[in-house]
Specification:
Chain lengths: 174, 747
């Protein structure tokens, strides 16, 4: 499956010491430093008023980051927008590398006083209903890339198959 | 081979829409190949609803320095607009009408191509932000597959046709205007007679005169439903108004005809479009709306020309063929009517019911308002809301100009369950149509024209007011707040009780975000009156402005006195005096919070801007003169309030001359204080040389002075009122002009 519109969400392990709005100045400082490799960081948008929404959004040309609150669980989500040369597992690894970079920056942020992220649980979201509708067939097609990217032992569970949501896979690493 | 939406949806898209989207996709290809001029492409994409967004010129100030944004291509999608820069997609929703399938599609697209958020606008549209131009054909095809077009959502065209969200279920309407709004939207979409405009054209429909309804007064063409009994038969028709509009200087719509029979609605609209296309201004964008043509011709002459044009039109069957189906064009409720009758109510239900539920004229049914903070909802919320609509209201959903969504034809006993579902998805907040339900345009968040953060301020006020809403006096709860990021009025600040629009002032060497306080606007009576600016206050102190004015209103209002009456009785002078101390800005070193805007920690000012000795002196003298001009504008308002239009005109004109002189004297300190000389020197030194001019508004504000100088004095209320607004904008523009001058002196 030649999929590049991919999203990955890494979950927070604990609650941040500040409100969602507190991420606004942090993301602005990322722009000042242009500190995410391979990304032209552009702007910050505060959506903290939306219930279980994207929280605070950091817009980049290549993909967007957000302090996602869907299902009430805080995490850092990254959605790739621009095509990349990698495909399959390599594309997944590239997206994981980018979001992990964001997580490392947040974990190093002193104003967040020890916010940590889980390293063994994540969501993979296909953001392309044309290439990968949310059905079991798409999941099966995506599975080899997921296994290659996260290892044979990874537990892969399709979230709400058959619904109008995007194809989403809950990944637990072992 | 990779599948495409074009192939997948081929049999679900109207062939005409499909051909138009194919054509747009070809134009994208041609532009990429350099075979289409950037200006032509810009108007082409605007007519498809693809709008520019802030920072799309490739520069953004990050709070410390201006950064160049690096993209993969140097291609542009319009003058000074980079191809790869994120843009906005506006989606027309005629009369705000949606069904659940459309809501699902809109939710999906926001997730896949935007940022997962849908924004409801003040004209019932939906907007996506951070869109790439090359994704737009797919977006358009997927929308077309559910019966939505983005055609003519922007550009010099007929924009979304709006209508009262209660049309068809309202207790006070003459009749349901939706079949007529729908027919007008369809008939005029892409109509050849509506392609040659110099500017946009907005149409609205109202079912009754006395409610806010469709806000007819602020539209180029507004129609209020009326009936007339002739020969024992009730005839349907419309009271038609023309030439209304907000923008920098609002114009009241003028009555075109007290009764246009229903069969004449479409041919009359066509005739008006033809006259506007033929005679409307084309070169000067800021004088190109219909309101200026009508101000120039007078409504009588405009009417004569339109009626003359009407006689030349060839009969078109579409003018009347829809009328046969009007009586059947009624919504079918999903469930039988029922009444709330001693049911157990969930916690919070009663407060929500009091503000968010409207009982329809059809007994047993209600309209439920879904309040959207800042007009936003996520894709997930939109999809869930579609599910809720399927369960409780069917296809009868509307977006509103107050940036909410309403579900109509809800059977009353379903309300507790509906409320529980809304609470579950975070959309069960009470307060629809109250002071917490604040309207705001995108402002500096995404709009290229934004001066101050309208959304940031709206969010802050909303949080503060919601926290104390239980303790607010009912009179305060009933007030409305509307905020625009600049003078262009997209947040409709002129028609609210408390309105604000963004402006800026330079204090020392730094810029400080401000808002003009606008009081006295009227939401009812189809936007029955426009408020006037009172005083410019630093953004940081606007919450205090709201507190002081509302506290005084609660304390001093007379029994049954509404807010407009209260403002009129107390008077602008006293109200301004109450706020005077809030206008002071402490030095940066004392309180830097004044120097950034709500929701944006970046320093608002251009940090590296310094002022040389010479410029410092100039600015200081200028500041003195401008303060005096500010005072004169305010005095002009007081004259207007007292009905003395001669003095209003004289004082507002003097304010403009004073401001113009402040710039002239920066170059020629001995310039004489005389009207002809001041105007001509200003024209020669700053207008003709293009030395002064707003980046986006150009020299439009200078024209206010030139026109008054050439055509004054003004003696009637409308002209005097307009001049006060123009003087205010001119003075603010001169403030910005001094900033430009200072920067130039430094360089």
């Amino acid at each position: 499956m030649d999929l590049y519109r991919l999203g990955i969400k890494l979950f927070a392990a604990n609650s941040p010491s500040l409100q969602t709005k507190g991420f606004v100045p942090i993301f602005h400082s990322w722009i000042q430093r242009q500190c995410v490799a391979g990304h032209q960081l552009i702007d910050v948008h505060d959506y903290s008023h939306i219930h279980q929404g994207p929280g605070v959004l950091l817009v980049a040309h290549e993909g967007n980051f957000s302090t996602d609150m869907e299902d009430g669980r805080l995490g850092l989500a990254y959605f790739r927008k621009l095509p990349i040369k990698e495909t399959g597992a390599s594309a997944l690894r590239a997206a994981l590398k980018t979001v992990s970079e964001g997580v490392a920056l947040l974990e190093a942020e002193s104003s967040l006083s020890g916010l940590r992220f889980l390293k063994d649980e994540l969501l993979v979201i296909s953001n392309d209903r044309l290439l990968a509708p949310n059905d079991t067939r798409s999941f099966q097609e995506l599975k080899p890339a997921l296994v290659a990217a996260f290892g044979e032992g990874a537990e892969l569970v399709q979230v709400n198959p058959g619904t109008k949501q995007r194809l989403t896979v809950h990944v637990r690493l072992r | 081979m990779t599948p495409t939406w074009e192939e997948k949806l081929a049999d679900r898209i109207d062939p005409q829409l499909a051909a138009e989207i194919d054509q747009f996709e070809t134009e994208i290809t041609l532009r990429k190949q350099g075979k289409l001029d950037e200006k032509v492409f810009a108007e082409t994409r605007l007519r498809r609803g693809c709008y520019g967004q802030r920072y799309d010129n490739g520069h953004r100030h990050d709070g410390i320095r201006s950064q160049e944004l690096h993209y993969t291509t140097e291609l542009t999608k319009g003058p000074d607009t980079l191809w790869d820069a994120p843009g906005m997609q506006r989606i027309k929703i005629p009369f705000g009408g949606l069904n659940p399938a459309q809501m699902d599609a809109l939710a999906d697209l926001a997730e896949e191509y935007a940022d997962g958020v849908l924004h409801v606008t003040t004209r019932q549209d939906i907007q996506y932000h951070f869109i790439h131009i090359e994704d737009t054909p797919a977006i358009m095809r997927r929308l077309a597959a559910v019966g939505i077009t983005t055609r003519e959502a922007c550009g010099n065209s007929i924009r979304n046709v709006t209508a009262c969200p209660l049309a068809g279920v309202c207790n006070t309407e003459s009749f349901d205007v939706i079949p007529y709004a729908r027919a007008t939207a369809r008939f005029m979409l892409g109509h050849p007679d509506a392609q040659g405009f110099g500017r946009k054209f907005k149409i609205a429909f109202s079912g009754c005169r006395q409610e806010a309804c469709g806000l007819v007064n602020l539209h180029d063409l507004g129609a209020i439903a009326v009936t007339r009994t002739e020969g024992g038969k009730v005839r349907r028709g419309f009271e038609v108004y023309v030439g209304g509009g907000l923008g920098a200087v609002p114009h009241d719509a003028k009555l075109f005809d007290a009764f246009i029979p229903e069969e004449e609605l479409l041919p009359l609209t066509q005739a008006i479009a033809r006259v506007f296309a033929r005679l409307g201004e084309k070169k000067q964008r800021d004088r190109a709306r219909l309101k200026f043509l009508i101000a120039k011709l007078g409504v009588e002459e405009f009417r004569r020309l339109v009626l003359e044009e009407r006689q030349t039109l060839h009969q078109d069957p579409r003018w009347t063929e829809y009328l046969g189906g009007v009586s059947e064009d009624v919504e079918k409720p999903l469930k039988p009517p029922t009444f709330l009758n001693g049911q157990k109510r969930p916690e919070g239900f009663d407060g929500w019911y009091a503000t968010n539920v409207y009982r329809q004229k059809q007994a047993g049914y209600v309209v439920a308002s879904v309040t959207l903070p800042l007009g936003d909802l996520s894709s997930w919320q939109m999809r869930e809301l579609a599910g809720i609509a399927r369960r409780f209201s069917g296809d009868s959903i509307r977006t509103t100009v107050e940036q909410n969504i309403v579900l109509r034809w809800v059977s009353e006993t379903d309300l507790p369950d509906l409320y529980r579902d809304l609470v579950r998805i975070g959309l069960g907040a009470p307060g629809a149509g109250t002071i917490v339900d604040i309207t705001a345009c995108p402002g500096t968040d995404t709009c290229k024209l934004g001066i101050s953060s309208s959304r940031g301020l709206a969010g802050e006020l909303r949080t503060r007011l919601a926290a104390k809403s239980f303790n607010l006096d009912q009179a305060v709860k009933d007030l409305r707040i509307k905020i625009s990021g600049c003078f262009n009025s997209c947040g409709q600040h002129h028609i609210s009780d408390l309105g604000f629009y963004g402006t800026t002032l330079t204090i020392g060497n730094r810029k400080v975000p401000h808002f003009q306080v606008v009081l006295g606007g009227k939401w009812q009576d189809n936007a029955g009156a426009y408020g006037l600016p009172l005083v410019r206050v630093p953004s940081r102190r606007i919450p205090d402005v709201v507190d002081r004015i509302t506290d005084r209103y609660v304390r001093d209002r007379k029994a049954d006195e509404n807010f407009q009456e209260f403002v009129k009785r107390v008077g602008k002078k006293e109200l301004r005096g109450m706020l005077e101390d809030l206008t002071r800005v402490p030095p940066y070193e004392v309180d830097p919070s004044y120097y950034s805007d709500w929701g944006d920690p970046r320093e608002y000012t251009i940090g590296d801007m310094g002022v040389g000795e010479c410029a410092g002196e100039v600015v200081s003298v200028a500041q003195f003169a401008l303060t005096s001009a500010d005072r004169l504008v305010f005095e002009a308002q007081l004259h207007l309030e007292s009905g003395d239009y001669v003095k209003t005109d004289e004082t507002a004109y003097r304010a403009m001359l004073q401001a113009a002189l402040s710039l002239v004297r920066a170059e020629w300190p001995e310039a004489p204080d005389e009207a002809n000389s001041a105007t001509e020197e200003f024209r020669k030194r700053f207008f003709d040389t293009n030395l002064w001019g707003d980046r986006y508004a150009g020299n439009k504000f200078a024209q206010y002075l030139f026109v008054r100088h050439a055509s004054g004095p003004y003696r009637n209320h409308d002209q005097a009122r307009r001049l006060v607004e123009e003087a205010q904008l001119f003075v603010e523009a001169v403030y910005r002009g001094h900033d430009i001058l200072s920067e130039r002196v430094q360089r």
